[in-house]
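Hi C.,

You asked whether I'd gotten around to modeling the 280-residue construct. I have! Everything is below, sequence then structure, no commentary in between.
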Amino acid sequence: MQPPLRCLSQEGLRASDAHREYCKDLDLSDNNTEFLENFIALMEKVTPDSKQCDNFLLHNLILDTGITQQLVERVWKDQDLNTYSLLAVFAATDGGITRVFPNKAADDWEEEPEPFNASFYRRSLDNKGYIFKPPYRDAGYRGLDLENNTIGILVSTAVELSIGGKTLKPAVVGVKLDLEAWAEKFKVLASNRTDRDQLGTRRCDPSTSCEMDCEANNKDLICVLIDDGGFLVLSNQEDHWYQVGKFFSEVDANLMSALYNNSFYARKESYDFQSHPWGW
């Protein structure tokens, strides 16, 4: 078996088979492991340059497989994800590969196997900086018991390369945050505190002026992180943690209306034909 094919057999790998015809005789499968086994079996019979295969797609697939495996071996394995409160790190490529580390996180991966069908991938390509993607929750979602379940939030960004004066985006890389741990970090990061030791912690009320402290004043001050689509990502309110991933108007309709009225968000109509129409 050739080295690239050994990479394909590694755990943590997700290969796109939904909309890419790598080879005419390749048996497609919705099961990722079965698809990889079928692919390896075919590559042992034919060469990547075979006329029955799309050479461009196939070479990109094998190239990306090798590169992402090196990412695991040389970078990710040396990092203690718990230090940063991370559940996983991942890379999704133009060639159709999604690599997730560690292996347990790969087993729990719920995103589309085809990168171009995954919303985090498309949004990362279309936007500068970092994109946040909480797990989707519909209006009827009642939340999980955080003591027995871990909720992850994807944070991703596009890899940009400049070649010959042109900017290429061959991949998207990112991490999966531990919601409960990062909700605590968020309280500190979102606060506007200066010289706290001298000033002490002061509660905010209409008759006094104080610094914005999302941690100490969590009963008086609502601090939230909402993504570009209007979905709740993080909050300093514990009762919001069970609603992460919901459209924010389902969490706090008045605040969402205020954001809309102040042009932070624009209304865009959309329809879910299996449920009820909604939109902003």
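If it helps when you're writing up: The two ends are 53 Å apart (CA to CA).

Thanks,
B.
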